[in-house]
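User: Let's play a game. I give you a shape written as tokens, and you guess the letters that built it. Ready? Here's round one.
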């Protein structure tokens, strides 16, 4: 079922477009030394954006104060706008019954995009 939902997500839910946007953002951020930690977070979000079904977001063990500061900077610069865009997409998809599973995945992406430092993406057990 996960495979089918992930294929439908890539084709109909905008998964490939969202993934490519995060990959492009990550590549641009990695061009500068200061942007590398933020680029790595974009790559993490891109992986979730491509195949979100069957994955879960957890707090990383031993999250640091530096990660908290980086999250604050991320939120101020871009996180809130990325969060709002995923929420808007989720609301648009939740209008139809067929779009509800995709809306849930956009909410999952919104939560990770709001504060990605100190989070890990894991496979959920079947």
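Assistant: Ready! My guess for every position:
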């Amino acid at each position: 079922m996960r495979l089918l939902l992930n294929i439908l997500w890539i084709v109909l839910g905008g998964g490939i477009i969202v993934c490519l946007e995060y990959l492009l953002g990550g590549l641009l951020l990695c061009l500068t030394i200061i942007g590398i930690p933020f680029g790595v977070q974009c790559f993490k979000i891109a992986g979730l954006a491509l195949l979100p079904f069957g994955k879960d977001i957890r707090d990383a063990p031993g999250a640091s104060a530096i990660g908290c500061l980086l999250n604050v900077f991320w939120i101020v610069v871009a996180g809130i706008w990325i969060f709002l865009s995923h929420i808007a997409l989720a609301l648009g998809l939740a209008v139809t019954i067929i779009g509800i599973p995709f809306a849930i995945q956009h909410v999952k992406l919104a939560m990770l995009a709001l504060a990605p430092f100190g989070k890990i993406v894991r496979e959920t057990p079947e």
